[in-house]
Structure formats: C-alpha cells, structure tokens
Amino acid sequence: MRLLTHNMLQCHVKKCTDPALNFPLQLQDIELEQVETEENEDLLLNLINKVDYNALTTTAAQLGLVGLPNAIPKDPQADPAFMTRLHEVLLETNITQGKMACRGCGHVYTIKDGIPNMLLAEHEI
Ligand SMILES: [Zn+2]
C-alpha cells in the first residue's frame, strides 16, 4: 500500500475515538518499495488538500524519507522540487510488509504483501 493509503487510515476499534491518538497509525518493522509512476500535477494538487500533511511529514521522517518541507509551500505548483518529492513519498513509496500500531488502544494492524489487514476481533467492533 502507498503512503497515501496510510495517511487515510485510522484505528477503527469501537471505543478508540480520540483523534489525537487513533491517527496516524504508528508504523513498525516496515519494508518499503519504491515503484515509479508518472507524476500527475492535477492529482497532486487535489491530494494536497486531502492528506494530513503533518501526519505525512511525521511518518516520512520515521521512515527516513527526507526532503519534504515542514509546511506545504504557499504555491506548490510553482515549486517543482516539492511536487516531485511529494509524488515520490505519497504515491511511489509502497509499504510491502510491516505493522501499524494504534497509540490509543494498542491494536496492531498487519500489512502483508502490500495489503493492510484492517479486520478486528469481534469484541473490538
Ligand atoms: Zn485504536
């Protein structure tokens, strides 16, 4: 799964509702793969408004992915280096294996072969 997907996942255990804790899920034992895709400016500009940029930069730093500024540039379109790095981090960086732990309830979601397992046990639903 791409880092974009991770940026949109929050813990969905029933009693885990604190937005300060149930997002973003903490990545652990992660294996990454870069998959080149064509850069699409319109898509990126659209995604800039949808992603949680603070969560993205925090996660990127934890994974050792450098080069994203702390804040989105005022005119991202005029900053091709930013657009390219955002594209690489958000859309070309894939998590193939690992775990995502919730800071709120401790639930651990596993990622296997690029697919996150978001299923819960019956008592967590
Ligand atoms: Zn949780």
UniProtKB/TrEMBL annotation:
Gene Ontology MF: a single term: protein heterodimerization activity
Q: Which residues form a coiled coil?
A: none
Q: What is this protein called?
A: Trm112p-domain-containing protein
- GO biological process assignments: rRNA (guanine-N7)-methylation; tRNA methylation
The superkingdom listed in its UniProt entry is Eukaryota
InterPro entries in alphabetical order: Trm112, Trm112-like
Q: Which organism is it from?
A: Tieghemiomyces parasiticus
Q: Where are the transmembrane segments?
A: none
Q: Which Pfam families match?
A: Trm112p
Which family does the record assign?
A: Belongs to the TRM112 family.
